[in-house]
Structures are given as C-alpha cells and as structure tokens.
Specification:
Distance between the termini: 23 Å
CATH topology of the largest domain: Cathepsin D, subunit A, domain 1
CATH architecture of the largest domain: Beta Barrel
Radius of gyration: 21 Å
Number of helices: 5
Number of strands: 31
Structural class: mainly beta
Oligomer: single chain
Length: 438
Amino acid sequence: MPAGLFKFLSHLIRKSGQLPHFCMSMSAVKYSFGLLFLCLLLAPAKARTQSGFRMPPGVSQTVWPFEYVNNFIVVTVTLNGTFPLKMIFDTGAEHTVLCRRELSDLLGIRYDREFRLLGADMKTELVAYLARNVRLDALNTPLSAPDEDILVLQEDYFRFESYAGIDIHGILAANALSGYMIRINYLQKTLTIVKHEVFSPERAGYTPFPAELYRNKMYLRAGLGFDTDSVSAAKLLLDTGAALPLLLIISDSTLKLPPAVLPSQIGMGLGGYLNGYVGRVREFSAGHFRQTGVISYFQVADSMLKTSFLNGRAGIVGNMLLDRFQLVLDYRESVVWLKPSGNFRKKYVYDRSGMHLLASGTSLNEFVVESVMNNSPAAEAGILPGDRIIQVGIVPARILRLQDVLKALQKKPGKKIRLLILRNGVKIRKTVVLRNLI
C-alpha cells in the first residue's frame, strides 16, 4: 500500500475546505507481499456507522465457511439478494468496498457521492462512489446486513484476482460483524459468529490479549526480536486482509533491518511497484506464545509515514502468522483471544525460485512472470518477466491454480522444477533448481 509501502495510494482532490479524514485499509497483497491503502476524506454529515450484520431473533450463533486461498480469507455474500460476491474478510479495513461497479449498476444502486483520487504516483486518477442502504447477506447463514454503506470503485483498480488466483469482488470490513464475537478457525476454514452471552473463550482454552481499537481496527502489542537476544515491544495492526506474516516499518532506532535481507518488490500501487526488503525476524512473541524465523517484509519510513494515520504502529501482522492460531475477536471489549492451532509449529517457507507470478486469463489459470529477483534460481534458469508458464513438470498449467504453482516453487532446496514457458509465441523448456533465498 504504500513510494514507501505505507505511502498513501490515494488522496481526495478537493477545491477548498478541510475535513476530518476517514481512512480505509484495503489489504490486497501481491501474493504474500505488500499492503494497499485507500484513504478518503468524507464530510462529517455523510459519514455514519455501518449498521452491520445481524442474526434473527432466537439464533445465538452461526458458522460461515470461507475459502482460504493464497493466504486470503474469502467469504461469499449476496448483494441486494441477487449477486453472490467473493469478498476478502479484512480486519484491517474500516469500510466495505465493491471493486466492480458493473455489478452495482446492474442492480440500479444509486450513489450518494463521487470521489476523485490520485494514486501513489500522484498522476493516476481513480474514481470511487459512496453507495448507501445496500443489503448484504452472508451466503448460507442467517446473517444479514440490510442497511450498509459501501464504497464502489469505478474500475477494478486493484486486480485482487491476479494475486489470489480466484475471482475477488471486493473487501468485507470485519467490523461489520462487531456486534458479536468472531471466531476464526483457519484449519476448518470457518468463521463462527456468536453472541457474547453464550460463548466464553476462556473456558474454551483461549488466552486474552488487550487490543487497541482505532478507526474500527484492532492493534496488538507484540515482541519482536532481531539479530540479538533482546526483544522490542511493537504495536501491530491485526490484518486478516494481508496474505503475509509480518510487515514492519523501519523508522527509528528500535526497529532496524535484520543483517540478512534481500531487496524485493513488496507491493503494488497505482502507478508502479513499491520496493523494500524481505528477510526474517528472529522472534515474534505474544505473551507466552512464540514464533521463530518469521518471514517479514520491511519498508523504510519516509515523511509520508509520519502522520496520525498510522496510529503509532510499527507494522502489521497478517494471515501467514495468524493462521498458526485460532482467534476470537471481541470488538465490544477490545480483546483478541488466541489459542495455538495445529499449524503453530509450522515453518515459515519463502519462495525458493525468485520469480513472482500473476494469475491471468478468463479462468485465472494462465500464469505470467511479473518479475524475477536478481541472482535467483529463476534468473539463473533464464526466466524473464513476461514469460507465461504453460506447464509445471508434466502438469498443464490450465488445470492448476495459482496457489498450486506457488506451492511447487516452495519445495525443498535442490528440487528441480521443470517448466514449459511461452515467450513471444515460442515454447521453451526451463529448469529451475530451488534454493533458500532468505
């Protein structure tokens, strides 16, 4: 999201006057990289709290299945009782966003306001609309939000499907469920929405962690250890819309780059890719829970980061770390409850090829090399940006999903991955010998 990762992707163009700002984090990530932010200014008279999802009388809890694809939590909702939409469930978002205006236009949804914004390059313009009184229903559950305010993008600027490998229609802000406890089970791929009076996380074996609630988002205090035995306290945004473990802002003497990092593209904004570093944090700790060797992305701070927007945070913690736990989110009491899952001791594995892929085509089963890391196995094999992978081993790419290809590129060091690529209409065979990069 960031020409620093957290540089604002967009700013509202206004002719006069100053208004309090109202920001929404849209955590689309490039595979496991980078965060996207959309920040808007709205007139106070136009801003109101979302009505949120509700269960009917007599129902105390419901289970909402999700897809866990490329480390995104993807739920299905219907828009005004008609269109099923795939939405990223995002605790890092203040407001729900629809990326496909053609869907809301088909339903004749009226827009209250139009916003014109600039991208990170301060040249690319995007347009968004505020739509009021929209109905959202959680598919195959009794949950309904009959009176939501959502933001609608004029065009699908963010191309979430290229990074997730499945169709994504927008962002569902997790705070739309803040009237209940939200239990996230990554292994079972379920959200359990439950009333406070019928569920006790403590009795279920969860450990409580106080959270700071700011702009409808939760912040946790955690310990970070780098190249020494010391551990630094850090405030991190809890962000289920981020398909990464950690993303840290290097801005002062407390948080420094680890000794072994690689330059990397860590995100994509309007107008270009955003650069930073990737490496590992020796230790992440929350209370007595400890994770080691955590893959982390780093953005060196610039003047754009010295704003109240960041709320003093040192970075974010995303799904690739959170999925080591079962979580219960309690917005009412500002508490996050954690319990280790079967993934708790799973190792953090980084791509071992050095190439970044995007999904394309009508079925999202065409895989294009977006970039190649210098001196990496992919570079040594002669893979170039723009190459299209049409076969992995003996398996045609057309029957694979993006996450299948990425998983193949994380196999053990020394593994030979044979690829058939298409370059300028010519089929070429390449062999990539995997190795650890960080």
